[in-house]
Amino acid sequence: MARPDRVEAYGLTTGDPLWTWQPPEGDLLAHASADAPDGVGVVLHHDHADGDENGGAEHIRLTGLDVGSGRVLWSREQRADALGSVDGHAREVALGGGLIVTARPGDGDRDRDGPPALRTINARTGALQWERPVPERWGHVSVVRAHSVVVSTAGPGEGAPRRLVVVGGETEREIELPRWAREFGGDVAVVGDTLAVECLGTPTPYGEEDTGSTLNAFSVTTNVLRWT
Fold it and tell me: Which of 41, 71, 127, 186 is most buried, judged by most C-beta within 10 A?
């Protein structure tokens, strides 16, 4: 379990605490990987200054933890502006599968104009895996998942359809929000050709409550709703 100031591990069958890891020098945890390939979980942490973007941090740190023991296997620094916002509430960064996925201007410089781009980075080495421009029709892009790469799009323009897009280095598959729903949930599961996501219902006429939500599974290759 990743918290703002520490990572805690518990026994799956007993619930007993196993270990606790705290980031050095009072750093705050902004993101934690959604999985642990080969038993290694990755956390992104940085120093903090109230009111400043990226917590005032020029550099962020990435640390690989052995999930069995809590032992630090590797750690490295990276410039924060290469990732865009790294705040824990931001959806411009996701960790998973040993990768960092970020949505930011493709030129890598906030002071220069450039088209938005999705960028996939090796979490341990910082090496760029692939980068591709964001189509204008997607509008605002939020990164939902890093492995497989899934982004949420809204726009451009008011009333534009909301979509989930499964993205590869040279491929993209769009899944549109069902007409009876108003929003996708904040996380997805991708297993083979199936993507499962919560779809939130529309509010009641008086806005006091919504009409509930459902779990929906779509085919990634055909975009067809398989079951609800």
Answer: 41
